[in-house]
């Protein structure tokens, strides 16, 4: 329900008319439609990178709610894995992951975290020089 409330609050701040929909909320403003897709609790969360864009290294936070096996890897624009940040079982808590990109060319990269059940979270990072 929290996501739905955030959607409605954003719509009201934009001054839009809001009408409830069966799967979420529809916002009528310049053909903008926001729909609540899924409120299933996630076993982990991966923050956005800070700083982003970055020049040599950046950090992401990985929060784990229960003991789980997690793999976090970085992929280039062609889908090739270029760096592995984490692989193995983690206990509940928050972890800081440092991406050292000093050996990577400038460009857009995807950081993908996947747990043992197949849940995947992806974040984009931009490396500039």
From TrEMBL:
Q: Which UniProt keywords apply?
A: Signal
| Secretion system C-terminal sorting domain mapped to chain residues | 51-123
Any one Pfam family here would be Por_Secre_tail
Annotated signal sequence is 1-23
What protein name is recorded for this chain? Secretion system C-terminal sorting domain-containing protein
């Amino acid at each position: 329900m929290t996501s739905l409330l955030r959607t409605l609050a954003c719509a009201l701040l934009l001054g839009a008319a809001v009408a409830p929909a069966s799967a979420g909320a529809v916002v009528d403003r310049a053909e903008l439609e926001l729909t609540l897709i899924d409120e299933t609790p996630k076993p982990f969360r991966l923050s956005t990178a800070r700083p982003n864009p970055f020049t040599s290294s950046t950090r992401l936070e990985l929060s784990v709610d229960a003991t789980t096996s997690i793999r976090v890897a970085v992929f280039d624009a062609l889908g090739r894995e270029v760096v592995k940040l984490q692989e193995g079982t983690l206990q509940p808590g928050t972890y800081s992951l440092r991406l050292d990109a000093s050996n990577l060319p400038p460009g857009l990269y995807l950081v993908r975290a996947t747990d043992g059940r197949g849940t995947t979270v992806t974040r984009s990072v931009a490396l500039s020089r």
